[in-house]
Write a structure and sequence with these properties.
There is one protein chain. The radius of gyration is 22 Å and the shape is globular. The chain folds into three domains: 121 residues, no CATH class; 125 residues, Sandwich (Immunoglobulin-like); 167 residues, C8orf32 fold, CATH 3.10.620. Helix 11 links the parallel strand 11 and strand 12. The strands form six sheets. It has a five-stranded antiparallel β-sheet with strand order 7-8-5-18-19, with no helix packed on it. It has a four-stranded antiparallel β-sheet with strand order 6-9-4-20, with no helix packed on it. Strands 15-14-13-17 form a four-stranded antiparallel β-sheet. The protein is an alpha+beta fold. The longest helix is centred in the N-terminal third of the chain and has 23 residues.
Length: 446
C-alpha cells in the first residue's frame, strides 16, 4: 500500500471532493492512457475503487435520512433537519448532483454534539449499549478494587453473506482467534464450507473458504481469555524491529507528528524519561483530547494518525493507530491488537494497542475505552496497561496479508474483524456489498 503516499492529482481530487464521480472516473481513465509512473497508475486505480467505497458509505437518501433521524431525535422538524444539513452538522455529500447521507450519520450526530445527545430518544439499541457498558464498567471497578483476574470460556460464531449476489464463485476470509498473549485454547467447532485455518503466527488470522456468492458463510469457534493486569511480566518476548518501524501509508513519522510530540512533552528532553512515562503522556493526551466518532471505511483515509491528530476525533482503531505511531516515533515498541469487544450480551468490532516495557514485557492499552471513561478517572486509568476480558482478537499486525493472500482490493486493507469476499474468476474481483453478523453463543466464567 506504499503507493498511497503519492498525492492524487489535484483536478481529480477536487472532482471527488465535490462528488463529481462520473467526471472523475472519466478523467482517471484518460490519465491512465498517458505515460505516468507505475505507482501513480496504482493510485489512480485505487481512486476508482475508493469512489465505489464512497458510494457504499453515502447511500442514505435525503428522505430516508429524515425518517431515520426523526425516530431517534426528539422534536425534529423538517426545517431543523434541513438546517443541520446546510450547516454541515449531518454527514452528507453530493454524488453526481444528488445528496446522500453517510450510513451512520445519526450516531455521529449524538457522538459529536451534546445538545443532540440530550434529545436522543431511548431505543432498544441504546438500552442494549448501556447494558453492555454497565456490565464492563462494573467488572473493571471490581478489578481495580480487588486485582483478582477471571478466566472466561467463550463460544461465538461469525457469518457473512453478499447482499447483491451474482451467482459467481467466491472465496471468503473470516476472522479466527489467535492463540497468544491473553487468549488460549482456541478450538475450531464448525463452518459452513470446507475450511482452511491460517497458521497462528500470521499477523491476521482467518478461516478461508470457497463457494458461491448466493450462499452464507460462517465459522464457529471457542477460546479462553483472561483479564490482563499488565504490570505482571506476563509476556516478555522481545519486540521485533517492525514494532519500532514506519509502515506506509499510515504509520509514518511526519513533521506534523513530531511537532505534536513537542506539544505533548512540552519540549522536554524525551531521552531522560522512562518508556512507561512516555507512553502515559501520549495515552493521557489522546484519551483526554480525542472524542470517539464513527469514521468512514479506513480505505478512504490517506493518513489516519494525522487525521486524528488534526480533527481530534476518530474510532477505536484511529485512536490506537495514532498512539502506536507516536510511541514508535519516540522509541517505545508498540503493536496492534484487534478483533471484537464481546460480552454475554453482544459483540462488535474493536481495536486496541500493546506496548513493550523493558521491566514488564508487553502490556495492553485501550485508547477509545479509556477516553470514553474520562468522567471516571479510575476507569480511564485502568485502560493504561490493563485490559478487561471481554475480548476476542484475531489480529496482531496492522496492514498484514491474509493466508492465503487476497488478490483484489480489500474492503479494509488494514484490519479484519467482520470478514472479506473476493470473486475468484475476476482479477479485480473485489466485493464490497457484504453483511456480517456476530453471535455470542456462550460466555461464562471458569
Amino acid at each position: 500500500m506504499e503507493f498511497l503516499v503519492f498525492q492524487t492529482p489535484e483536478d481529480i481530487k477536487q472532482d471527488i471532493i465535490k462528488g463529481h464521480f462520473k467526471k472523475a472516473e472519466k478523467v482517471i481513465k484518460e490519465r491512465l492512457s498517458q505515460n505516468i509512473p507505475q505507482n501513480m497508475i496504482k493510485k489512480l486505480y485505487f481512486e476508482l475503487y475508493r469512489m465505489q467505497i464512497l458510494r457504499s458509505a453515502y447511500r442514505v437518501s435525503e428522505k430516508e435520512a429524515f425518517k431515520i433521524l426523526r425516530k431517534k431525535l426528539k422534536g425534529l422538524k423538517i426545517q431543523e433537519f434541513r438546517k443541520l444539513t446546510q450547516e454541515g452538522i449531518l454527514d452528507w455529500m453530493y454524488i453526481d448532483g444528488i445528496p446522500f447521507y453517510e450510513s451512520r450519520f445519526d450516531s455521529n450526530l449524538f457522538f459529536n454534539y451534546q445538545e443532540f445527545k440530550e434529545r436522543q430518544k431511548t431505543t432498544e439499541d441504546l438500552r442494549l449499549n448501556k447494558k453492555r457498558r454497565n456490565l464492563i464498567d462494573s467488572r473493571v471497578l471490581e478489578l481495580v478494587e480487588k486485582q483478582k483476574v477471571k478466566l472466561y470460556q467463550v463460544r461465538a460464531k461469525i457469518s457473512i453473506k453478499r447482499t447483491r449476489p451474482l451467482g459467481v464463485n467466491i472465496q471468503v476470509w473470516l476472522p479466527f482467534p489467535k492463540e497468544e498473549f491473553q487468549q488460549s485454547e482456541v478450538k475450531f467447532l464448525s463452518s459452513s464450507h470446507e475450511p482452511l485455518i491460517a497458521p497462528n503466527e500470521v499477523g491476521q488470522r482467518t478461516v478461508y473458504m470457497q463457494g458461491r456468492d448466493t450462499e452464507e458463510f460462517y465459522v464457529e469457534f471457542s477460546y479462553k481469555i483472561h483479564e490482563w493486569i499488565g504490570m505482571q511480566k506476563l509476556y516478555t518476548q522481545k519486540p521485533s524491529k517492525e514494532d519500532l518501524s514506519e509502515k506506509p501509508p499510515h504509520i509514518i513519522f511526519t513533521p506534523y507528528l513530531y511537532n505534536l510530540i513537542d506539544v505533548i512533552f512540552h519540549g522536554e528532553d524525551i531521552k531522560n524519561l522512562e518508556d512507561i512515562t512516555k507512553a502515559k503522556r501520549i495515552y493521557d493526551f489522546i484519551t483526554l483530547n480525542v472524542n470517539y466518532s464513527y469514521v468512514l471505511p479506513y480505505v478512504l483515509y490517506d493518513n489516519i494518525p494525522e487525521y486524528v491528530a488534526t480533527v481530534f476525533k476518530g474510532d477505536c482503531g484511529f485512536q490506537a493507530l495514532l498512539f502506536i505511531t507516536l510511541c514508535r516515533m519516540i522509541g517505545v515498541p508498540a503493536k496492534w491488537q484487534s478483533g471484537w469487544s464481546i460480552t454475554p450480551i453482544s459483540a462488535s468490532p474493536h481495536d486496541w494497542a500493546l506496548i513493550y516495557l523493558e521491566d514488564y514485557g508487553w502490556v495492553p492499552l485501550d485508547l477509545s475505552f479509556g477516553g470514553a471513561r474520562r468522567d471516571n478517572e479510575n476507569l480511564r486509568l485502568f485502560y493504561f496497561t490493563n485490559l478487561d476480558g471481554f475480548r476476542m482478537f484475531a489480529n496482531t499486525e496492522f496492514q498484514s496479508d491474509f493466508y492465503p493472500r487476497k488478490i483484489s482490493w480489500r474492503f479494509d486493507p488494514y484490519d479484519n474483524q467482520i470478514g472479506e469476499m473476493e470473486i475468484i474468476e475476476k482479477e479485480d474481483g473485489y466485493v464490497i456489498d457484504t453483511k456480517s453478523r456476530i453471535e455470542v453463543i456462550e460466555f461464562k466464567t471458569i
